[in-house]
Amino acid sequence: MQLILKGGRLIDPAGKRDEEIDLHVVDGRIEKLGKGLTANAAQVIDLKGKVVAPGFIDMHVHLRDPGFEHKETIESGVAAAAAGGFTAVCCMPNTNPAIDDASVIRYIEAKAKVAMQGLVDVYPVAAVSQGRKGEHLSPLAELAAAGAVAFSDDGDPVHNAEIMRRALEYSSMFKRPVIQHAQDPSMTRDGVMNEGLTATRLGLPGWPSVAEEIMIARDIHLTQFTGGRYHVAHMSTAGSVELVRQAKKQGIAVTSEVTPHHFTLTDEAVRTYDTNTKMNPPLRTQDDIEAIKIGLRDGTIDVIATDHAPHSFDEKEVEYIAAPFGVVGLETAIGLALSELFQKNILSLYQLVEKFSFNPRRILGLPVIKVTEGETANLTIFDPAASWVVDPMSFKSLSKNTPFGGRRLTGRPIGVLNNGRAYWC
Ligand SMILES: [Zn+2]
């Protein structure tokens, strides 16, 4: 396989590069970088106006496999990731069995290796507690040795402070972060949407923003106390952004992520009673979105991750209160980020690449992708200007539960290269 990626704009935060340049790729390796490259045997791909970036990673994905293969499998999840412009994903441990045993990690890695011939790297996030029950720590050392890149009970919070303390202590010995799904369960028992005027009007039980914030506040104290590393998943409120901002100012090892749906939609979207507007944490208010955008811009929020949470059509086709939480995200993330953040002058393309590629890899301690001669071509290529309409039926994901069906977006992925494979979206 020989390719010349011609005339694209290479944005590479690790190499501090932002320039139009050609890449000659031979058998999955970057042979040469330069202007006006030619090679007789190579297929030339014109990338004028397109961006070439180090491969994007979605550090928050539910692949549902093992245990819930009617929602997603490792094969379909990997296909959705490639179609969405990602060369890597982290898969969350709320499978059945949970990822609390090295054998589950080996199962995932074996399946990921053959899915699309290993195009997408799959990095398991192991459970903090056995069975994610919050009672006893998982064997963290064994899980780290088996390949877990982080620890989380995602799907649920680590609500027990002592468990969180020990998780932060032990995980820091293996240089892995603890990823918290921040939710105080005592305040969200019946909640299905953001607590506020809209919930009152709709007659739906509310879920207050403070339920997220008090958990983050506690965890920041524990992180400072233990010297551990803490990452806030899918941050949704203005108060959470401010807590992380202040913690970072104090030099505490806290990082954070936000999902595309939380910077795009407010709780007003629930007015339709479309169960694809039901997610955990819930959609918040315009004030929260404004705070999240400022947090993205000033670096308080390090990462954009999707919380890709597939559910089958039948599971979501019930009344709002009974529906499961979660939406798919892999195949709309780049389009939403370009539409809502780049087109609206919140983030530059360089900053977007940092939040989709450089920062999550740094947080997870993964090797930095080098876009230089002699290195493996691990690339995401996207068009920041292409206009398109989201069609859930065309998703590679087994599940179609998105609130963005029919929405026009500006910007989309073009293709990915990784591990000697290329895929054109
Ligand atoms: Zn979560």
Structure overview:
- The chain has 425 residues and is an alpha/beta fold.
- The protein is built from twelve helices and 20 strands.
- The protein has helices at 74-83, 102-114, 140-146, 161-173, 197-202, 210-226, 238-249, 260-264, 286-298, 313-316, 333-342, 349-364, and strands at residues 2-6, 9-12, 17-20, 22-26, 29-34, 43-46, 51-54, 56-61, 86-91, 121-126, 150-152, 178-180, 193-194, 206-207, 230-232, 254-258, 303-304, 379-389, 408-418, 421-424.
- The chain has an eight-stranded parallel β-sheet.
- Strand 15, helix 7 (238-249) and strand 16 form a beta-alpha-beta unit.
- The radius of gyration is 21 Å and the shape is globular.
- The site of zinc ion has 6 residues, from loops.
Query: What overall form do the CA principal axes indicate?
Result: globular
> What share of residues are in beta strands?
15-25%
What composes the largest sheet? 8 strands, parallel
Low-confidence stretches: none
* Bound ions, cofactors and other small molecules, one mention each: zinc ion
Distinct helical segment count: 12
Mean model confidence by pLDDT: 97
Helix/strand-derived category reads alpha/beta
Spatial strand sequence of the major β-sheet:
8-9-10-11-12-15-16-17
Instruction: Report the count of strand segments.
Output: 20
Question: Helical percent range?
Answer: 25-40%
Round the Cα radius of gyration to an integer and report it: 21 Å
